[in-house]
Amino acid sequence: MHAKSLTRIAVLAALPALLNAADVFDYRVLATSKTSTMEKEMNEAADAGFVFGAVMGGNTALGGKEVVVVMQKNSAPGETAKRSYKLLATSKTSTMQKELQQLGDEGFDYRGQTVFDTALANKEVVVILERDNTKPPSKIEYRLLATSKTSTMQKELREAGDLGFSIVGMTVSKTAFGGSELVSILRK
């Protein structure tokens, strides 16, 4: 066999190992009953190179009523994330709209939402926003829709769609004023 053929065989044999090395992830699971603590822990994980992966609110076996966030880090060379996180939690949809837009003006992008049953405030909609600190922030316009009727949500979504808004998340939650409501978040 020629030297070129042996080199090609060696490269092809090593290729699967090289490809798999790029797809190695590390995870950090965060769980707390306080949303302020969660924001702090998410930003600490972000400082260590982790980015948001998933969120869910509910009862955990040992922690009780908690919000659980999974952060992930790609271990591939050159993969370094510089992100910061904000957590919004409220049972008042008008407050959520105002706070969402303030963070949108600062370049924070929607990443996830859940319903969190807090010890003090009953059920709250929790929204996670992320900003990539390696890029200049660009303004994001948010619209929050909340209604108890699916037919009304359909109408309001169509109207928002006509204005260029795209849905990014939805939950069903008991809010302070509206009882059980569909809460949709849109952006453009």
Q: In DSSP terms, counting alpha (H) and pi (I) runs of 4 or more, how many helices?
A: 4
The share of residues in extended strands comes to: 35-45%
Helix content: 25-40%
**Structural category:** alpha+beta
What strand order characterises the main sheet? 1-3-2
What value does the average pLDDT take? 85
Verbal overview:
The chain is an alpha+beta fold and 188 residues long. It has one domain (25-187). The protein is built from 4 helices and 9 strands. It has helices spanning 3-21, 35-47, 93-105, 150-162; strands at residues 25-32, 51-60, 64-74, 83-90, 109-118, 122-132, 142-147, 166-175, 179-187. The strands form 3 sheets. Strands 1-3-2 form a 3-stranded antiparallel sheet, covered by helices on one side. The chain has a 3-stranded antiparallel sheet with strand order 4-6-5, sandwiched between helices. Strands 7-9-8 form a 3-stranded antiparallel sheet, sandwiched between helices. The longest helix has 19 residues, at 3-21. The mean pLDDT is 85.
Which characteristics define this entry?
alpha+beta, 4 helices, 188 residues, 9 strands, three-stranded antiparallel beta sheet, single chain
Can you describe this structure in just a few lines?
31% of the residues lie in helices and 44% in strands.
Give a topology summary.
Elements: H1 3-21, E1 25-32, H2 35-47, E2 51-60, E3 64-74, E4 83-90, H3 93-105, E5 109-118, E6 122-132, E7 142-147, H4 150-162, E8 166-175, E9 179-187
Antiparallel strand pairs: 1-3, 2-3, 4-6, 5-6, 7-9, 8-9
